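Is this the right way to post structure tokens for a design question? Let me know if I should format differently. Anyway, here goes:
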């Protein structure tokens, strides 16, 4: 069954977070500003937690050389 509201989704996240920490022995990477709701955030159970904000790999990263080539209409990097 699908959750009916954001509070249900948040509760599922907190439950999954507890399972990750207890079984895998590691934290859950998350951006606090995206997890905590904008209104009444301090009432949410996710407000008073710390999350790892490290860059995970593999990841999509910006390639400045490729951006310059595409803007100039140049040839691809690999012929």
């Amino acid at each position: 069954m699908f959750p009916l509201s954001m509070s249900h989704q948040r509760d599922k996240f907190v439950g999954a977070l507890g399972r990750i920490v207890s079984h895998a022995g590691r934290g859950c990477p998350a951006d606090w500003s995206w997890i905590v709701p904008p209104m009444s955030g301090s009432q949410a159970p996710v407000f008073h937690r710390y999350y790892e904000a490290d860059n995970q790999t593999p990841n999509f990263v910006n390639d400045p050389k490729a951006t310059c080539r595409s803007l100039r209409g140049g040839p691809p990097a690999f012929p």
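Format looks fine. Someone answered above. Worth noting: The longest helix spans residues 6-24. The mean pLDDT is 75.
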